[in-house]
Amino acid sequence: MKRYINLSLRIPTTRLYTYSVPEHIKKNLIGKRVLVLLKQKKAVGWVIEEIDRPDNLEIKEIITVLDDEPIISPQSINLAKWTAEYYLCGLSEALNLFIPPSLSQKPITYIEKGSIEITKASPTQKLILELVKEKGRVSLSTLKSRVPSPYSCIKKLSAKGAIKVISQVKPLPEIPKEIKAKEVAKDIPPVLSPDQKEAIDKIRLCIEKGSFSTFLLYGVTGSGKTEVYLRAIEDVIKRGRSAIVLLPEISLTTQLIERFKMRFGAECAIIHSRLTTKERLTEWQRIRQGCPVVVGARSALFSPSKNLGLIVVDEEQSSSYKQENDPRYNARDTAVMRAKMEKAVVILGSATPSLESFHNSQIRRYERLDLPERVQKSRLPDVEIVDMRSEKTPGIFSQKLIKAIEETVGSGHQVILLMNRRGFSNYIQCYDCGSIPGCPNCDITLTFHSSDKRLRCHYCGFSSSAPSVCPKCNAERIKYSGFGTQQVEKEVLRIFPKMRVLRMDTDTTKKRLSHQEMLSLFAEKKVDCLVGTQMISKGLHFPNVILVGVISADIFLSLPDFRAAEKTFSLLTQVSGRSGRGEDYGRVVIQTYNPGHYAIQTAIHQDYSLFFQKEMEYRRELLYPPFSRLLSLILRGENEEKVEKEAERLSEVLLVNNKEDVHILGPAPYYISKIKKNYLYQVILKTPDYKRLHRLLLACDFKPASGVSLIKDIDPVGVV
Questions:
Q1: Contact (CB, 8 A) for 413 and 584
Q2: How far is residue 441 from each of residues 141, 462, 601, 638, 668, measured CA to CA in Å?
């Protein structure tokens, strides 16, 4: 009986393609790659499912099967289907999440000697046969470089049996069964606090049952959440199952990876974006072959872990778990769905949970586990607020912070300074005409970087030399306004010339392993002061740090974002938690121009409950998450008039088809109305039931005009 399969091809589409299977192929093909013809061109497809005989009788056969064993498991295919449906993307885009980039490459076509000897051949055919005889096997690309227009001759020779045309993919790397781990001192598990023990006991009970459960591990900074993760993973491994641990920032992976390696040795695989293609494929293959622990950034969620028993999402509130290009998934929410499908346990850990997760714990969708005290009874740092409006001499540092830095370093301790904006100055401005240089590709001012005296756009990468005279009026009076991490670093060195200062932001951490090298220097006390953006605000453990300074606590509060207060509270609470994690008391100095704001006041005392109460009142009144679900629809194109017109047309189509009382906001220019030469307009949909959003989009079937693209972002976490 003829078999038929549905394939997902490596093209951005929601549809599947049907092919038949040659009768000599008997094996199960689901999860394997196959080679097919699509519009007379060879293409690689992933077998998704077998189907009954289709009505259309003219179905092409697959050319060949490229894998001996399935590359994607049935569970991964199911999760990819859910991801495609929920996040409004094509199945092929969702499947790409599960596949290392090197496995998505096109197969290599080879020419080999056939079983038939021929005597008559054209000069071109003879040249092909001679090359094949000489080499034994010749790649098509090599043949094309030696033989002009070889295709017709290859076709004729193949039909006669004189040559064979074979397509093969790059084989998966061979992974030794016994991997010698780098020598790492084994850690000694600490004595658990009563709260830690109670949390682990509850988690263990669900692991033993083999049932799906989601826990919100809510603990103050330094309360020992990582040890709870480690004990839960140990329990999962003992039962022959595997675990995935997600971390939001690459900067966090360095220290935590060391802790996991000290506990689990070679049983720990690492996945993040700084790995080379070869390293990533090797780790992926190790996981396929049974490595039980995976640690990494959001992409680690799609690792081929077998018999999954536990997923940990550390710092679950972080916006880094949301992917900002298609498919625009949130790794935290997708982790919960994967665990549900595979009957695994999820631990969402944070000192500042997202309002959505904390709300889910209140309505019993998640079970909350509290760690209200730091381990070993160490106390939270003392927090002081400096009202920068009352500073007599305006500048980057208040007198209180300068004195605190001097005392801290003088006592042999270390300092962390947070400035959540990179660069030297926010912008430069002409005193005479007031003009501010902007990016020609984006609707944003250029940031001055003193290291190379250039103006840079942090969205598209455009850069130009900083002008010595105004480009508009030729005046020579140029002023530098605002500041970023570069200027903070320079100012520290001006005030404390002998201080050892290290700056950590996306400008200084572009090289591979730079995070690891910098944090190692700081851990070894070869640096007195670490200056950085929010990448240094959470997850790091340096017992010698007893002072944290927040240069400007108001940055998020100035954004047109309903999550501005939540982001401010989380950032201040998290970075405060880096202080006083050793034997000495910690201190935090927060500089602000808005000291009375509830996000800042509640962060001083790490009072999440009070912040949650105040913020939820605001969210409920304006129907923002967790009381609603959002869908951001962004129109993008190079012709502003056309983009605006299409945004208005989209809004009209939505209004006509809105049968379920979905709130439709806009259209309006996106908060940055031009990025990378593209103009952006946004329409926001808001409703308590996300299924209404899906139904409304399905009813509209909107297709933008040529030159305009539509971005669909459900549950956006950026500026909305």
A1: yes
A2: 39, 8, 39, 10, 19
Q: Are 634 and 326 in contact (CB under 8 A)?
A: no
Q: What angle do CA 299, 13, 33 make, to 5 degrees?
A: 65
- The CATH number assigned to the domain with range 194-376 reads 3.40.50.300
What's the mean per-residue pLDDT of the chain? 86
Grouping H, G, I as helix, E, B as strand and the rest as coil, residue 607 is coil
Instruction: Express each pLDDT in 178-203 by its tens digit.
Output: 544 455 566 778 889 999 999 999 99
The mean pLDDT of 499-510, rounded to a whole number, is: 83
| Helices then strands, each counted (H, E), the chain | 19, 30
Please confirm whether the linkage preceding 626 is cis (ω < 30° from 0). Answer: yes
Cα 593 from Cα 387, distance rounded (Å): 6
With a pLDDT cut of 90, the percent of the chain lying above it is 41
Question: Rounded to two decimals, what is the model's pTM?
Answer: 0.85
Q: Give 379's contacts (C-beta < 8 A, 6+ positions apart).
A: 580, 585
Residue among 99, 98, 103, 21 at smallest CA distance from 65? 21
Whole-angstrom distance, CA of residue 615 vs CA of residue 354: 11
Token readout for 115 is 């079983």
- Domain limits, the chain: 3-104, 108-168, 194-376, 378-424+483-619, 629-714
Nearest of 614, 625, 612 to residue 562 by alpha carbon: 625
Angle between helical axes of 690-700 and 640-657 (0-180°, round to 10):
110
DSSP state of 378: P
- The reply to whether CATH 3.40.1440.60 applies to domain 3-104 is yes
The residue-averaged pLDDT of 310-316 equals 96
Highest mean pLDDT of the ranges 256-265, 358-367, 436-445, 474-483? 358-367
Q: How confident is the model at residue 424 (pLDDT cuts 50, 70, 90)?
A: very low
DSSP type of residue 330: B
* 534 contact partners, CB below 8 Å, separation of at least 6: 418, 420, 571, 575
Nearest to 553 by CA among 393, 420, 688: 420
648 pLDDT exceeds 90?
A: yes
194-376 and 378-424+483-619, same CATH topology: yes
Q: What is the pairing mode between strands 345-350 and 367-371?
A: unpaired
C-alpha–C-alpha distance, residues 160 and 624, integer Å:
69
CB atoms near residue 363 (< 10 Å): 8
Q: Which CATH fold topology does 629-714 show?
A: Alpha-Beta Plaits (3.30.70)
642: tokens are 């056309």
246/119: higher pLDDT: 246
Domain 378-424+483-619 annotated CATH 3.40.50.1100: no
Helix (H) or strand (E) holding 217: strand 213-219
> What is the SS3 assignment for 21-84?
ECCCCCCCCCCCEEEEEECCEEEEEEEEEEECCCCCCCCCECCEECCCCCCCCHHHHHHHHHHH
Checking if the pLDDT of 672 tops 50, the result is yes
Instruction: Decide: helix, strand or coil at residue 94.
Output: helix
